[in-house]
Amino acid sequence: MITRLADLFPIILAALVASVVLGPLAVRSARRLGWVDVPGSAPHKQHGTPTPMAGGPVLGLAVLACYLILRPPADAGITGMLAGAGLVAAGGLIDDRIGLSPLVKLAIQTTAAVILIAVGVRIQVTRIDGVDLALTLLWVIGMVNAFNFVDSMDGLALGLSGIAAAFFMLVTIDSAQPVLAVLSAALLGAAVGAFLYNASPARLFLGDSGAQLLGFLLAALGIAYIPARAGLPQGVSWFTPILVLGVPIFDISLVVILRLFRREPVYRAGNDHTYHRLVRLGLDPIRAVLLMHLAGVILGLIAFMALDASVLGANLIFAGVVLVGIGMVVLLGVRTRETA
Q1: Cα angle value 64/66/70 (rounded, 5°)
Q2: Angle at CA 11, nearest 5°, toward 210 and 88?
Q3: Residues 6+ apart with CB under 8 A from 36
Q4: Do 225 and 242 meet the contact criterion of CB atoms below 8 Å apart?
Q5: Model confidence, pTM
Q6: pLDDT (tens digit, 9 = 90+) per residue, 135-169?
């Protein structure tokens, strides 16, 4: 039975070791099967050598290994989360290999979100079924694509996911939801282990399979987290997952808003993400990644601090973060346009 933070350490270690062991095997398998990202195959692909897109199998198998070997507590919700994650990861693998149309990818992501809803993992904010179902679909599909968008540099998306998983692990222990804490711990360990191969210069890329798996599982954790079990009113906790996942949300918002403003296609790949704009402003690539990781830590800490505030104070904190985010969208949009 998981009752303490220390009970999660074996889960983290098992997932970490599994991902470290699986990394080289996945790299070799991806090369043989042709799951390789070739430099110059698209304008935004500027890496130097052909790199296997093996992140999805490494992460998925490492998390699954924890459940098969250690057999921690799980329920129907966890089963649905893993099934949905497997579906988006499989769709991502196909997309990495042969390419899928945006409509097909959207259909796969929607089906995975429906699996969550079917097992009872859904947003319940308004208590109006139609509205809450729509919010669930928007949140899940949005986060899947947000992690796909933010995966623009070695180690960036994986580091952000590890930070988010660590915060979800802490809040779910506090809310007496051990099954969610276990999944968060497994995802944290898998992300830390895979980071060994994804850090710059990367030996493997996440690909669509890895990025979408991360986005789906973190979106599902954000929905299933119930702060009321820790005695927290909804008024101070409804935005906790939004802040914990704030950097990917900011990145996709920045890209979509500025592309719509320029009347450009929203779903095309490009070099106009937060990372690229920070580099254009003069940061070297490694520090740009670290700055975004630091922002993820800061937003997670703010989310925790807001849990101890009054309802008014917590929502003022959230409003302040949103205003800062809007200001950063304007700043990055204007400054990087000037330096382009």
Answers
A1: 135
A2: 20
A3: 30, 50, 51, 52, 53
A4: no
A5: 0.94
A6: 999 999 999 999 999 998 999 999 999 999 999 99
